[in-house]
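Thread title: Can someone regenerate the structure for this chain?

I was given the following input by a collaborator and told the matching structure tokens would be attached. They weren't. Posting the sequence so someone can regenerate them.
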Amino acid sequence: MNRLEALEHFHKTYVKDVLSQKLHQVASLYEQRKQELMLSFIQSFQRTCLQASHIDTAKARIGYITYSMRRTYLVDRNYNYVIEAYDKS
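Best answer:
Regenerated them for you:
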């Protein structure tokens, strides 16, 4: 068995099952905490809007708000994210 065949065997034998289990766990956790997560997001969005309204001027009105998180942060278990507000242009 060469390296490529061994890697393919590893994916079929182990990764597929573990990935399926982990996805099921994540889906279950999400369903359990959905309400809490929604409220947390809404509160965060409200705070962002309030902060943006203080810096909002007629010249630069907020058009877009984005939330982002780097995959590398997740791998490192760093759950910080960035919130950015942009004008329409």
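The chain has a mean pLDDT of 86.
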